[in-house]
Design a protein that fits this description.
two-stranded antiparallel sheet; 115 residues; Glucose Permease (Domain IIA); alpha+beta; single chain; 1 helix
Length: 115
Amino acid sequence: MPTTVTSLHAALVAPILAAMCLGLGGPLDGPVLRSFAPIGRYAGHWGVDIGVTAGAPVHSVGPGVVTFAGSVAGRRSITVSHGGRVRSSYSYLGHIAVAVGAAVGAGDVLGHAGS
């Protein structure tokens, strides 16, 4: 029986990675440096690190509403709620271009990558 983490990976992360590999969209255009890793060597890494240059635009992976735009542990971050308890978060930003409550569409610029 699949664990909750495995199910979460299959439902949320795998489609995003597949979409990026197929060129259908993703938050950034760059190679995946570190993937979602709920267990093993990078246990607790609940995201995907994508390699880009500082200043690259960061896009929403889907339509939703910005529910957080600010600092987490000294790093600029944004969270978008897509409905149905699905959220996407974007961290290590150099610039935030949206405010809490803003409606965003798939591909809209949320901010820019930091260094």
